[in-house]
Amino acid sequence: MIYQGVRMNIGKYDQLPVQVGQVFVVDNEEIAVFRLSNGDVRAIENKSPHPKGGRLADGLVSGEFVYCPLYDWMISLVDGKVQAPDRGIVKTYLIEIEGDNVFLIV
Ligand code: FES
Fold it and tell me: Among the atoms of ligand 1, which is closest to the Cα of residue 72?
């Protein structure tokens, strides 16, 4: 089966706030999008893998990591991995930038 992703235009690059999570909902799933200080744009599932399921878009961003606002787990915005000593992974999504436009691929 060929999986056909959804490619959603989520706005202009310049309008994405730096280091502040923005939430987009695709197919009832919340996705947190971050524009990093290095200029990259990253997208991850908006839910910490911790049982409390904190909303990652509300977390503090530092470099390529976000700290969950509830219990401070440090999660990579590049590969979704929770950093030691904690464990777990969140889904990551592809971002494409075309001219000024940012697309989220789900
Ligand atoms: S809810 Fe995110 S670390 Fe606990």
Answer: 3
Distance 42 CA to ligand 1 centre (A): 19
The predicted structure's pLDDT at residue 4: 65
Name the architecture of domain 7-105. 3-layer Sandwich (2.102)
- β-strand partners of 75: 66, 82
| CB-ligand 1 contact for 74 (6 Å cutoff) | no
**pTM of the complete model:** 0.93
Domains of the chain, residue spans:
7-105
The CA R_g of the chain, rounded to the nearest whole Å, is: 13
* Ordered mean pLDDT values, 10 residues apiece, the chain (106 residues): 77 97 94 98 98 97 98 98 97 97 96
Residue 103 and residue 95 in contact, taking contact as beta carbons nearer than 8 Å: yes
Q: How long a stretch of residues is the chain?
A: 106
Decide: 71 in ligand 1 pocket, CB within 6 A.
Answer: yes
Residue pair 70/54 in contact (Cβ under 8 Å)? The answer is yes
